[in-house]
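Table S2 (text version). Query chain:
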Amino acid sequence: MADDIFLTPEEQDERAKKWLRENGPAIAIGIVLGLGGIYGYDEYRKHQQSQAEEASYAYGQILEVIQESDLTDITSQVETLTADYAGTPFASKAMLLKAKQLSLTDVDAAIEALDWVLENAEEQPVWHAANIRRAKMLLSKEGQAQSVIASLEKVDHEGYASHYLEVVGDAYVQLGEDEQAVASYQAAIDALTPADAGYTRILTLKQNGVRRAESNADNESS
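Corresponding structure-token output:
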């Protein structure tokens, strides 16, 4: 309708009426759909908020239970969260707690629980916590050290480097590769954030333990 400026007012009016007759139904549908989208989104937002509040309450109940005893069975509560509120961060956090319990009695089941967290967690701290715990549990199984190192090296662990490097050091200890273990522990120390500086002592103890074991082995062989 760029040529409308060359028409008389009457012609412009008639052109406008014709355009409305041809396009009016589509405009009406668009308005209805637009309003439906607005109200639909509002209902969706309310539903999401309700889901989050219910999941938060359910997770709070789990925390109260395990405060009384770490060994209290939370299976049913966790199943409710993972079944009905899987899209919330509380489901992954609950499964992380369940994995910790399972690790005391059934490592394979604990690893399976952590796999669920890795597939569903959206929060980076929760995802990395699950990944690190999974690696540690794999190290409790025979013959997994090399695969643990390979898998952790593929992870973008910015912000969590020290935790990952410590596990890599543990894996090298299992493999009997003392130099790599010491180097990994040192890298873990160097990567500590100021907030975690107190953990330097633990890593240094691990590092010194490897050095002593290496020295003793050298003395026995000489």
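Notes on Table S2: The chain has nine helices and no strands. Residues 145-221 form one domain.
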